[in-house]
Design the sequence.
């Protein structure tokens, strides 16, 4: 398998996680370049991660043969333009979530990936968090889906208020598009396509900005299952996670990093062994494997597009007071 040469566009916090992931997969890839419009910041990033080639214009990086693929780690409203430029230049792309801030942009990205026959992988790294990864294997043995309940949040309201996350023109939305979109993807991955969406969002503690810091959405899936998803930037005291999947033959429960499941037939609970895995290492590894082997990405453009449609439908529902049907 050839070594894939990878560059990173953007040097914000999430770019460090991508860099560490690639560096942990040196048998498959090399982190060969990084780009940021801030010259001092990109120099510091390159020194920190041992990257030899730096750019302040990603167009110059894309013109070169220094990279075969790139991670797009920019603010949300810049995902589409950078991804489209990279695909047009013949590069494969791992784009951070959310895929874009509009459905139209996400659709263009998916179409360009198909036209150029390049891998476009959307950054839902939570699929590789051990309880979720193992839970997916278990839930498929618990019969048909009935209901899913998720609550997921953190305590970062004050710090995010000082950054682009709190500005809707840049982020596209608050907790629903930030941490929430991971669990929307998890809902589809575990239970299937979503048919109807209703939602309520609100800004309660965010000292600045014009996005929500709390959200609750209700989903009806195409297979008839139902789901309630709660997201928050004000889950004081910890990063909180409650995840419960009810199926015809059992129940799956994830609380924090603990996974357990109940089998209806035997009326017993079990706590399975979890794989040792780092989500960033696994995500970047899967991406470069898909690039090297010419495979369909593990997380597809459709996955990114559908998660975005569901999130935006929840905003529409909040504004209109109506349940939104997805085509």
Sequence:
């Amino acid at each position: 398998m050839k070594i894939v040469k990878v560059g990173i566009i953007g040097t914000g916090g999430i770019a460090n996680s991508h860099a560490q992931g690639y560096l942990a997969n040196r048998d498959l890839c090399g982190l060969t370049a990084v780009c940021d419009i801030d010259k001092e910041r990109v120099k510091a990033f390159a020194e920190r991660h041992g990257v030899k080639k730096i750019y302040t214009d990603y167009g110059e990086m894309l013109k070169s043969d220094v990279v075969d693929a790139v991670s797009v780690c920019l603010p949300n409203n810049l995902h589409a333009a950078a991804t489209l430029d990279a695909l047009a230049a013949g590069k494969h792309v791992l784009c951070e979530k959310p895929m874009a801030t509009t459905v139209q942009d996400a659709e263009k990205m998916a179409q360009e990936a198909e036209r150029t026959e390049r891998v476009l992988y959307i950054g839902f790294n939570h699929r590789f968090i051990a309880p979720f990864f193992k839970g997916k294997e278990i839930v498929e043995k618990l019969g048909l889906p009935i209901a899913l309940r998720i609550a997921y949040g953190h305590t970062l309201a004050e710090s995010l208020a000082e950054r682009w996350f709190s500005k809707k023109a840049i982020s596209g939305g608050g907790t629903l598009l930030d941490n929430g979109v991971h669990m929307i993807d998890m809902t589809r991955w575990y239970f299937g396509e979503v048919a109807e969406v209703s939602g309520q969002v609100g800004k309660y503690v965010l000292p600045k900005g014009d996005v929500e810091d709390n959200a609750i959405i209700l989903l009806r899936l195409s297979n008839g299952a139902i789901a309630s998803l709660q997201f928050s930037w004000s889950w004081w005291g910890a990063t909180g996670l409650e995840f419960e999947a009810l199926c015809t033959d059992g129940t799956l429960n994830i609380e924090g990093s603990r996974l357990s499941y109940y089998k209806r037939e035997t009326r017993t609970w079990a706590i399975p062994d979890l794989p040792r895995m780092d989500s960033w290492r696994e995500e970047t590894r899967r991406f470069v494997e898909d690039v090297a082997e010419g495979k369909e990405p593990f997380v597809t453009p459709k996955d990114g597009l559908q998660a975005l449609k569901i999130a935006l439908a929840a905003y529409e529902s909040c504004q209109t007071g109506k349940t939104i049907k997805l085509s």
Summary: The domain at 4-123+280-299 is CATH 3.40.50.720 (Rossmann fold).
